[in-house]
Design goal:
The protein has about 300 residues and is an alpha/beta fold. The chain is built from ten helices and eight strands. Helices cover about 40% and strands about 10% of the residues. Helix 1 links the parallel strand 1 and strand 2. The chain is globular, with a radius of gyration of 19 Å. The two termini are about 15 Å apart.
Length: about 300
């Protein structure tokens, strides 16, 4: 009697711009003949996972590799609503083009998929395993302070990383026999503050002023640099706090429900919103799979 092949689940964790490493991990696993039957994602993990199950991952990879610092800035806007800094219209165009169509539903996919979000009022963990896939992604990626909360079924939802940064439990609940988990936050606590001071601009006149304004703006959102004797900037403090919260929650959740295989790419050098550093993140995702390949092949039975 032929033995049933175990269902492989892949839990893609949260981590903002470090999440492009998921692209490298998915590609490297596919090259070994390992394709997950179940894919669950939190925050950026849900975005990359949705693109994968919708068949758009190659397009997404090509686009993120071409992304520049200034193209990244265009996704952010300063407005008076104080609901968030993300240009939601530009983001929607991006999601439609490189992740999935508005009308694609999770139950119509060839693989089981779920995204994790957080109920802002109750603090409950919300799973999206049915319905429009982009609704699930929007709810999962809504980082407080950057995105406005998303209303769904009379609930205000925010980023799933607040409650389940690496959704191993969701993979198990959907039927995974073997779970490969990707933790993007394993080495980041404290590393956000190790910066070198950028030398001042020498340019004078209008050009110098414009350059200074651009750098001040981009440093605020990306890799803000400061002298060692100065207190952290507002964004440094927020980013560092997010890192600590996600690291502690991840450790707690995985202690109670450990994955069969844990992939932990080394991404501490990439700041919270440095989405233009996709080449580095994707390459490290591939390297991470290479480092763990003997264990991956042993546990999944790939190549036998």
């Amino acid at each position: 009697m032929k033995q049933k092949k175990p269902a492989i689940g892949l839990a893609l964790g949260s981590g903002s711009s470090r999440g492009w490493a998921h692209i490298g991990i998915l590609s490297a696993l596919a090259e070994q003949g390992i394709e997950p039957d179940i894919l669950c994602g939190t925050s950026i993990g849900s975005l990359v996972g949705a693109s994968y199950v919708a068949g758009n991952l190659p397009k997404l990879e090509a686009w993120v590799r071409s992304l520049t610092r200034f193209e990244t800035i265009r996704f952010f806007e300063i407005n008076s609503s104080l609901n968030g800094f993300v240009d939601t219209e530009r983001l929607r165009l991006f999601l439609n083009r490189y992740v999935a169509d508005d009308h694609l539903r999770i139950e119509d996919l060839g693989k089981r998929f779920a995204a994790v979000s957080t109920d802002l009022e109750s603090g409950r963990e919300i799973w999206f395993a049915r319905g429009p896939i982009l609704d699930a992604v929007w709810a999962s990626i809504s980082v407080p302070g950057l995105f406005p909360a998303i209303k769904n079924n009379d609930r205000w939802l925010v980023d799933g990383g607040l409650v389940n940064p690496v959704p191993v439990s969701v993979c198990r609940a959907l039927g995974a026999d073997i779970v490969i988990a990707v933790n993007l936050n394993g080495d980041i606590v404290g590393r956000h503050f190790t910066r070198t001071t950028r030398p001042p601009d020498r340019a004078e006149g209008i050009k110098g002023k414009i350059t200074g304004m651009v750098r001040e703006y981009t440093d605020t959102f990306f890799s803000a640099q400061r002298e060692n004797d100065k207190p952290p900037s507002l964004f440094d403090a927020i980013a560092g706090s997010v890192n600590i919260i996600q690291d502690r929650i991840t450790r707690s959740r995985m202690a109670g429900d450990p994955p069969d295989i844990l992939l932990a790419p080394k991404l501490a050098q990439i700041g919270l919103l440095e989405f233009y550093r996709a080449d580095e993140a994707i390459t490290e995702g591939r390297k991470c799979v290479a480092r763990m390949l003997p264990e991956i092949l042993h546990i999944t039975g790939a190549g036998r």
